[in-house]
Amino acid sequence: MRIADVVARKSTAGVITIAPEAGVRALLALLAEHNIGAVVVSQDGTTLSGIVSERDVVRHLHHDGTVVNQTVAAIMTAEVSTCAPEDSLDDVLNSMTRGRFRHLPVVSGSSLVGLVSIGDIVAAKMAQLQFERDQLDSYVHQG
Question: What is the pTM of this model?
Answer without folding.
Answer: 0.86
